[in-house]
Specification:
Length: 155
């Protein structure tokens, strides 16, 4: 009996640790060390700009380090995560394009050619989205967003 209790005491902390959220990184930190993160799962806080031919994660402070294409992946069981579902609903409701802040978890890839016409240098195969906040409805390059929106997006 004592052996069972000792074994459970060792296993429970490991199970609890595996259910914790991964650490959230700043997208600019990932773009400084892209080779370190290529092929690895990351969680980043960033701004997403989505539309007909656009699916870009960015932060204004590092937008010149290369475009990051956001590709949504469906899990093997076919169940879409609540955050990805919310983001898709916003895209559907908002019309041609949206800009949102959020926390994105997925596999980082690059450098390479990704997305529409291969115009992005990096890609994140996103499996989970959290803390989605709609900032702007309509198409706009990040640099051309209204000042009040620029103040809210990832820096």
């Amino acid at each position: 009996m004592l052996l069972l209790v000792t074994a459970m005491a060792a296993i429970v902390p490991l199970l609890m640790a595996s259910k914790q959220s991964p650490p959230v990184m700043h997208l600019c930190d990932v773009l400084k060390e892209t080779n370190q993160y290529d092929g690895k799962q990351i969680t980043v806080r960033a701004t997403y700009r989505g539309g007909i031919e656009t699916s870009q994660l960015f932060c204004l402070a590092c937008i010149d380090r290369g475009r990051v294409w956001m590709r949504e992946l469906l899990p093997r069981d076919g169940e879409i995560s609540p955050g990805v579902k919310k983001l898709n609903e916003l895209l559907h409701e908002a019309g041609p394009a949206i800009t949102v802040n959020g926390t994105f978890t997925g596999i980082f890839r690059g450098p390479g050619q990704y997305g529409y016409l291969g115009a992005s240098t990096y890609q994140i195969d996103v499996q989970e989205v959290r803390d989605v906040e709609l900032l702007y409805r309509g198409p706009a390059e990040p640099e051309r967003l209204p000042v009040e929106i620029k103040n809210k997006i990832c820096h």
